[in-house]
Design a protein that fits this description.
Layout lengths: L2 H20 L1 H21 L1 H5 L11 H17 L5 H29 L4 H19 L8 H19 L14 H24 L9
Helix pairs in contact: 2-4, 4-5, 5-6, 5-7, 5-8, 7-8
């Protein structure tokens, strides 16, 4: 078997993928899809925000804020610009809250034995969030200082959620709130490490728009 040919073919597939991701039509499509998801997300959190002290409003709607960060990243890409702090915040929070929502809905499914169709929709959309944040990593231009800000944001959010008890409300799994808080803390750490590996590390893949 000609392994060099297979390696060449794999490289061409990767390049084709990233060429598609950099296409303005794809960027606009993702912008519109994420805009719709962001609006829906803030509406979904509306009932919780009504019961939340104003001091915590910024930190309660986790997932829509993550996708809002990515909207600004996509907007910058469309303008052929980079906003490193926003890129770092987007990558860390997209992965963190994308995986978090999938895990919480799976936990609801395990506890209740069933999940409404909205739960499956949330799992699919949040998994897409986590994936898109990583897929665009080669285009990001953030450094250590930008990632540090994103790390502080993510961990500070965990304190707001599980010390001040402002976490997204999943009543069916509230009994596991301690375990969920512990899981979320380590998910924050993993998200920061992945952002470092794919967007900051000197051996990471670097591409231009």
């Amino acid at each position: 078997m000609n392994l060099s040919f297979l390696k060449w073919g794999k490289t061409m597939n990767v390049l084709a993928l990233y060429a598609a991701l950099a296409d303005r039509r794809v960027l606009w499509l993702l912008f519109l899809a994420n805009a719709a998801g962001t609006i829906y997300g803030y509406i979904w959190y509306g009932w919780q925000l009504r019961d939340t002290p104003p001091a915590f409003w910024l930190f309660v709607p986790d997932s829509p804020t993550a996708s809002l960060f990515f909207l600004f990243v996509l907007l910058a890409f469309l303008w052929r610009k980079h906003w490193p702090y926003v890129e770092a915040l987007a990558m860390v929070t997209l992965f963190k809250y994308g995986i978090w929502a999938v895990a919480m809905n799976l936990l609801v499914l395990i506890v209740n034995g069933s999940l409404p169709w909205q739960g499956y929709m949330l799992m699919a959309s949040h998994l897409a969030m986590a994936i898109e944040g990583i897929l665009y990593a080669p285009f990001y231009q953030f450094k250590w200082k930008h990632l540090l800000v994103a790390a502080v944001w993510a961990l500070h959010n965990d304190i707001i959620d599980y010390v001040f008890m402002q976490f997204p409300r999943y009543e069916d799994v509230y009994r596991y709130i301690r375990e969920i808080g512990y899981f979320t803390f380590w998910l924050s750490i993993l998200s920061v490490l992945l952002a470092y590996r794919f967007a900051v590390h000197k051996r990471r893949l670097r591409l231009e728009l």
